[in-house]
């Protein structure tokens, strides 16, 4: 066992730094300027106003429109064997039934002209 002692002694300070990682440069702290603060506050206020507006006006607007819808229309119930064509010719015998049917379908958001017995159909105001 020959050991070579010719090498320089390693100091304790050198040993401690051999396994250490180099430190990263210190990151500067993020600073918001006065103009940045104003923009941040303005954006926050805008978002808050939009959210409050949606809840305030959206809900009351929906209630107002549904109340208007109920008061502006009269309703009829479909009898056995009755079709929208029969209803249209009874409501306005001089008009083209297809035009009256289209108006009734649009008002009631119907996707087809088929109706069921007992179904309530809203009529345009001019037929009330």
Mean pLDDT: 79
N- to C-terminal distance: 117 Å
Measured by DSSP, the beta-strand proportion falls in 5-15%
CATH class of the largest domain: Alpha Beta
Helix content: 40-55%
List low-confidence stretches: none
Instruction: Kindly name the structural category.
Output: mainly alpha
Radius of gyration: 40 Å
N-to-C SSE string, H for helix and E for strand = HHEHHE
- Count the domains: 2
CATH-scheme architecture of the largest domain = Roll
Number of discrete helical segments = 4
Largest sheet: 2 strands, antiparallel
Tell me the quaternary state: single chain
Walk across the major sheet and give the strand order.
1-2
Q: Name the CATH superfamily classification of the largest domain.
A: LysM domain
Shape: rod-shaped
The count of DSSP E runs of length 2 or more, i.e. the number of strands, is 2
CATH topology assignment of the largest domain: Membrane-bound Lytic Murein Transglycosylase D, Chain A
List the helices and strands and how they pair.
Blueprint: H1 12-18, H2 34-72, E1 74-77, H3 84-91, H4 97-108, E2 120-123
Helix pairs in contact: 3-4
């Amino acid at each position: 066992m020959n050991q070579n002692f010719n090498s320089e002694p390693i100091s304790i300070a050198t040993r401690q730094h051999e396994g250490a990682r180099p430190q990263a440069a210190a990151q500067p702290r993020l600073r918001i300027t006065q103009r940045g603060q104003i923009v941040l506050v303005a954006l926050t206020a805008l978002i808050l106003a939009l959210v409050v507006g949606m809840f305030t006006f959206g809900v009351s607007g929906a209630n107002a429109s549904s109340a208007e819808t109920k008061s502006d229309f009269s309703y009829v119930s479909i009898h056995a064997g009755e079709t929208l064509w029969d209803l249209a010719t009874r409501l306005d015998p001089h008009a083209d039934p297809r035009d009256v049917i289209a108006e009734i379908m649009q008002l009631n958001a119907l996707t087809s002209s088929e109706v069921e017995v007992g179904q309530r159909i809203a009529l345009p105001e001019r037929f009330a």
